[in-house]
Specification:
The chain has 222 residues and is an all-alpha fold. It has 14 helices and no strands.
C-alpha cells in the first residue's frame, strides 16, 4: 500500500470525516469529495519542497514536531487549526491561493471552507507522514517501487474497528490518472508550473502517491 492510499483510507473513515465536519462545521458529503482531491496535491507539493537538501531538512524538522499516535479522528478533533493553517501555507507557498481556488472549483466548496478543512487535516497528515518516514528509514532495505506495507500504521491511526469499517473508495490509480491529466481534472495547467516543469514534462505518479517523498526523506535520515 502506498502512502496516498493509506492516508485516504484513514482520512475517509466515517470517524475521521465526522470529526472534521464537527471541527469545521462543514458538510460531511462535501468533505468526502474534497479529501481525495486535496491529499494527492499535498503530497505533490511536499515532494517538491523536499526535492532540495535544505527543503528536506526543513520538512524533517517540522515532522519531528508532529509525532502524535492517536487515531486520525482524535487528532482531527484535537487539531490546532491555527497551526494547521500555517502548515498548509508552508506546503503550498506562493501557490496557496491558486490551489485553494482550484480545489474549491472541483469540490463545489467555497475557498474559505476549503482552507478551513485543510487546516483541520494538516496536523494529522503531518503525523502520518512522520510515522511513515520513520518506518521506512528504520527498515534495513525498503523497495518503494510497489508501495510499502504500513499495516502497523493503519492499526495505529485508524484503529482495528475503523479499519474494518472503511468504505470502498475510488482506486488510487483512477484518482491519479485524473489528477495527472485526465480530461475532467482541470488541474493540468496548474501542475505544469508546480515543479518548474514544462508541458512536455508532466508530473509523475510517484509525485502524488508519496513514494518519491518517502525516498527523499528517508535518504536524509539515514
Amino acid at each position: 500500500m502506498n502512502l496516498l492510499n493509506l492516508l485516504l483510507k484513514s482520512l475517509l473513515t466515517d470517524a475521521s470525516v465526522s470529526a472534521l465536519a464537527k471541527k469545521t462545521g462543514l458538510n460531511a458529503g462535501s468533505l468526502k469529495k474534497l479529501i481525495p482531491l486535496a491529499v494527492p496535491l499535498l503530497l505533490k507539493f511536499l515532494t517538491s519542497n523536499a526535492s532540495s537538501e535544505s527543503g528536506a531538512l526543513s520538512l524533517l524538522g517540522a515532522l519531528s514536531q508532529h509525532t502524535n499516535q492517536k487515531t486520525l479522528s482524535d487528532q482531527i478533533d484535537e487539531a490546532d487549526t491555527e497551526d494547521g493553517g500555517k502548515i498548509i501555507g508552508h506546503i503550498f507557498g506562493n501557490q496557496s491561493e491558486a490551489v485553494t481556488n482550484r480545489l474549491a472549483q472541483q469540490s463545489g466548496m467555497s475557498e474559505r471552507d476549503v482552507s478551513s478543512a485543510l487546516a483541520g487535516l494538516a496536523p494529522a497528515l503531518m503525523s502520518g507522514l512522520s510515522a511513515a518516514t520513520h518506518s521506512v528509514s528504520s527498515a534495513p532495505k525498503v523497495d518503494l517501487s510497489d508501495g510499502f506495507d504500513l499495516s502497523d500504521l493503519m492499526g495505529m491511526f485508524a484503529g482495528a474497528q475503523q479499519a474494518q469499517q472503511v468504505q470502498a473508495q475510488p482506486s488510487g490509480g483512477s484518482l491519479l490518472s485524473g489528477l495527472l491529466g485526465g480530461s475532467g481534472s482541470g488541474f493540468g495547467d496548474l501542475f505544469g508550473s508546480l515543479l518548474g516543469s514544462s508541458a512536455q514534462q508532466p508530473a509523475q505518479e510517484n509525485d502524488f502517491n508519496g513514494t518519491q517523498l518517502l525516498s527523499l526523506l528517508s535518504g536524509m535520515r539515514r
